[in-house]
Specification:
Diaminopimelate Epimerase, Chain A, domain 1, alpha/beta, TPM_dom, single chain, 6 helices, globular
Length: about 140
C-alpha cells in the first residue's frame, strides 16, 4: 500500500513543494501515488489525469506526477496548454531528476524536487498572478490502491 511507504511527513513535504511551485506559476500540480500499474505508465497517468479532472483548468496547464510504487513506474504528464509551450526535453529532465531520487528510495524528496523544477520552468510560460490566479486543483496527494 502506498500509505505504508509515504508517511504523513512525506505528504506534507510533497504538498509544501506543490504550494511553493504554484506561487511561481498559474500551472496546477497534482501527485497521485498507487501500488501497481497494470498498463503502460503513460496510459495509466492519462487515466488518472482524467479521473482527477485535471483537464478542466482554464489554461489547460495541469501537471500530474504519477507514481506506481511497487511496479517502479513513474510519469509526469502535462495538459495540452503546457505541452504546446515547453521545450522538448522538459518532461525528460524532470523525470530523470525524480528517478535519481527514487533509486535511493527518497520518494518524497524526489517528488518535491521534480515539482519545484516544474514550477520554475512553468513560470516562464504560465507566470503566477496573485490578483487573477485561483487554486483550481487540490494540493493534496491522491492515493490509489
Amino acid at each position: 500500500m502506498p500509505k505504508d511507504t509515504i508517511t504523513p511527513a512525506d505528504e506534507q513535504q510533497i504538498m509544501a513543494a506543490i504550494k511553493e511551485a504554484e506561487m511561481l506559476t498559474s500551472g496546477e500540480i497534482r501527485v497521485h501515488i498507487e501500488s501497481n500499474c497494470e498498463i503502460d505508465v503513460l496510459d495509466r497517468a492519462t487515466e488518472v489525469f482524467a479521473e482527477l479532472h485535471m483537464h478542466q483548468t482554464e489554461q489547460r496547464n495541469g501537471v500530474l506526477f504519477y507514481v506506481a510504487l511497487e511496479d517502479h513506474q513513474f510519469a509526469v504528464l502535462g495538459d495540452a496548454g503546457i505541452n504546446a509551450s515547453v521545450p522538448d526535453h522538459f518532461w525528460e529532465d524532470i523525470t530523470a531528476e525524480v528517478i535519481s531520487y527514487f533509486k535511493k528510495k527518497k520518494y518524497a524528496a524526489g517528488l518535491a524536487r521534480g515539482i519545484r523544477m516544474a514550477g520554475e520552468q512553468l513560470q516562464a510560460h504560465f507566470p503566477y498572478n496573485r490578483h487573477e490566479d485561483t487554486n483550481e486543483l487540490s494540493d493534496d496527494v491522491s492515493f490509489g490502491d
